[in-house]
Amino acid sequence: MSHQIPPESTPGPTRAEALTSALQESRKRYWRSNLKIMMVLLVAWAVAGLGCGVLFADSLNAYSLGGYPLGFWFAQQGSIIVFVILILIYSLLLNRLDDRHHAEMQGLRQGGREEQP
Q1: What backbone torsions phi and psi does residue 8 show, to the nearest 5 degrees?
Q2: Where does residue 79 rank: exposed (0-12), middle (13-18), buried (19+ CB within 10 A)?
């Protein structure tokens, strides 16, 4: 979503106010996206750590991994491995989100400067 900075002769909010408002909206969108990513990854971690390691352990114990029941494996090792993988995913997703956010902020700031006399 792109915000337009109004020309100086336009009635209503000044260009500085419009730029400030556009920057604040950009920051809000960035934070909302960050929270969505965190919530999805936290749910995935809870399912892997609590669900597979505790709640579904009896069902998972019907299978084995490396000679150990799968429920035991998830309780001891799997949730830690999933946690490390989720950290990697979070890092990659946030790098992508940061790049988009920085480009948007740069565009807003440059757009605000270019139109000033």
Answers
A1: -60, -35
A2: buried
Listed in sequence order, the residues at least 6 apart from 105 whose beta carbon sits closer than 8 Å to its beta carbon are: 23, 26
**Cα(74)–Cα(51) distance, integer angstroms:** 9
pTM of the model: 0.70
Domain ranges in the chain? 15-114
Strand partners, 65: 68
**Long-range contacts made by residues 20-23, C-beta under 8 angstroms, separation at least 24?**
22/108, 23/105, 23/108, 23/109
Q: Give the residue carrying structure tokens 């809870």.
A: 46
What digits encode the pLDDT tens for the residues 75-92?
888 888 889 999 999 999
Query: Which of 73-77, 92-96, 107-111 is most confident?
Result: 92-96
